[in-house]
Amino acid sequence: MVRCPVGDEPGAFNSREFSRKQLIGQEVNVYLHKDSGLNITGSLIRAKDSKDVEAMLVEQGWGFVREEFINSVLCIKLNELERKSREKFRGLFSKDLGVHRP
Question: Do the domain assignments include residue 102?
Fold first, then answer.
C-alpha cells in the first residue's frame, strides 16, 4: 500500500538506505492480504519489535501511500503519518528533495 521511489527517481537512494539500515540482519514477518477482487497486498513487520515497515517508511517521509489506496479505510493510519511527515518536511518532503506525489 506504500510506494517508495526507485531507480533514478529523486530520493530513491535515501529511501533504500533507510530501509536497508532498518532491516539488514533483521528477521521480518510477511503477511499477504487478498481483497474481494484479485488484488493482493502485503505487510512487512520487523520481528524484534513488531514495527510495521510501511508505517516506518511513511512516518520518516521515505515512502507514501499509493494512489489507489489513498481513500482506503486500510490506510487511515498511513495517510495520517504521511500528512505529518509532509508538514515536518521529512525525507522525500524535505526542502532539499521537494518530491511531489507522482
Answer: no
Grid coordinates belonging to 64:
507514501
Reduced to 3 states (helix: H, G, I; strand: E, B; else coil), residue 23 is: helix
pTM: 0.85
Total number of domains constituting the chain: 1
Give pLDDT tens digits for 48-84.
999 999 999 999 999 999 888 888 887 899 999 999 9
Chain position carrying cell 538506505: 17
The C-alpha cell that represents 20 in the structure block: 536497508
Q: Give me the sign of the Cα torsion angle 71, 45, 81, 5.
A: negative
Residues in the chain: 102
Cβ atoms of residues 44 and 28 within 8 Å: yes
Q: Residue 11 falls within a domain, yes or no?
A: yes
Q: Tell me the residue range of the domain where 16 lies.
A: 2-93
